[in-house]
Specification:
The chain is of the alpha/beta class and about 400 residues long. It folds into two domains: about 150 residues, Aspartate Aminotransferase, domain 1 (Alpha-Beta Complex), CATH 3.90.1150; about 220 residues, 3-Layer(aba) Sandwich (Aspartate Aminotransferase, domain 2), CATH 3.40.640.10. It has 13 helices and 14 strands. The protein has an eight-stranded mixed sheet, with helices on both faces.
């Protein structure tokens, strides 16, 4: 054994990791897995609503073809790309299948954004913002510029003011439909306005769109790609089929698509031929898929209304959004309650949520709650527990 004094210390980790923190939502998982906790925290679909039997049947069918056990093209299997393109009104050549839409965000950060030592890049995000996007942009070292989120989505008037003052972003990122965490949807007027700004100032728009199929009463507005060819569209099967398939996608103009394919070769060579085959067959079965989505919309709609009603009744000083789809309600305390402090007492009462500061430093009095994984009775009990925590915090 060498003398300990002669052993050099291990080389340090890459400097790009400096300042990059773990997702607060992921850090909550250990708490939310406790059986005594009603979790309103994680943005997880309900396992009981996932089509397990149908997936099992399609997996067995797919395994009868040995080609599903083989490598596939980096950009994904042809049947899946054709199916995704048909649903989006795009060309199959524009589609890259990814390991969930989160991988698409990571790859796009690498091909669109320069690190600080290379001059750096400016990125516009919503405020509050999706934490997965923040992690990708932070890891590259992008300069983030936050634009307020309102009831009509990203405030494009505020963005126009920033652009007029000299901001020249490379990317504007938006969760345009049933926002995570905000629960709101970008209005058609603002979609047109954002597209016009992209044409005028030359930035890319990343439309992160995993919730568009989860509308309750009325379908959402047309996707941003309807208004502009500067849009990079992201989608996923995680919220409508099952996260374990790990099937997401990106639809992008050719220069971006080719660059992402090149970088993806070094990341994973290709995705799973098996799960892509399964996803393709499920997404292409229009009759079955529409029936499945109709069921999801009905159940999630009931849960959204139950949670909103319970919050309004039990915690009136919490002003909340009332989503028309998706999985989240965003609330802000009118009395300045600090939700990161409230969380500790809430866990003592047996309920968990995500404090607003996880989505932006200006949101210390806000929180995100998810209604997808609990039935209305459980949601009401969760709100009762949260209300007790709020009341206890007020008298401390």
């Amino acid at each position: 054994m060498p003398d300990q004094d002669s052993i050099a210390p291990a080389a340090p980790l890459a400097r790009r990791l400096d300042g990059v923190s773990s997702s607060a939502i992921r850090d909550l998982l250990a708490i939310t897995q406790r059986p005594d906790i009603i979790s309103l925290a994680g943005g997880l679909p309900d396992p009981s609503l996932m089509p397990a039997d149908r997936i099992s049947t399609v997996v067995a069918e797919a395994l009868s073809e040995r080609t599903t056990l083989q490598y596939t093209a980096t950009v994904g299997t042809t049947p899946l790309r054709e199916t995704i393109a048909a649903r989006a009104g795009a060309h199959p050549d524009a589609v890259v299948v990814t390991h969930g839409s989160q991988q698409a965000l990571s790859l796009l950060s690498q091909v669109l954004l320069d690190a600080p030592g290379e001059g750096g890049s400016d990125v516009v995000v919503e405020d509050p913002a999706y934490t997965g996007a923040l992690q990708c942009f932070d890891l590259i070292g992008a300069r983030l510029h936050r634009v307020p989120l309102t009831a009509d989505g990203l405030d494009t008037d505020a963005l126009e003011g920033m652009l007029a003052a000299g901001l020249r972003p490379t990317v504007v990122h938006t969760v345009s439909t049933f926002h995570n965490p905000g629960g709101v949807t970008l209005s058609p007027r603002r979609r047109r306005h954002l597209a016009d700004l992209a044409e005028r100032y030359g930035f890319w728009m990343i439309e992160d769109n995993p919730y568009a199929d989860l509308w309750y009463d009325t379908p959402p507005p047309a996707a941003l790609a309807t208004y502009s060819d500067r849009v990079i569209s992201l989608g996923s099967t995680s919220k409508i089929l099952a996260p374990t398939l790990r099937v997401g996608w990106m639809i992008a103009p050719e220069p971006v698509r080719a660059a992402v394919e090149l970088v993806k070769q070094s990341a994973d060579l290709c995705g799973s031929t098996l799960t892509q085959t399964v996803a393709a067959r499920l997404l292409a079965d229009d009759g079955w898929l529409e029936e499945h989505l109709t069921g999801l919309r009905r159940v999630y709609g009931e849960r959204a209304r139950a949670l909103s009603a319970a919050l309004a009744e039990r915690i009136p000083r919490l002003s909340t959004t009332h989503p028309d789809g998706g999985m989240f309600v965003w609330g802000t305390f009118t009395d300045g309650t600090t939700t990161s402090d409230l969380l500790e007492r809430a866990v003592d009462e047996g309920v968990a949520f995500v404090p607003g500061a996880a989505f932006g430093p200006a949101h210390r009095s806000s929180l995100r709650v998810c209604f997808a994984t609990a039935d209305p009775r459980t949601l009401t009990e969760g709100v009762d527990r949260l209300a007790r925590a709020v009341d206890a915090s007020a008298v401390r």
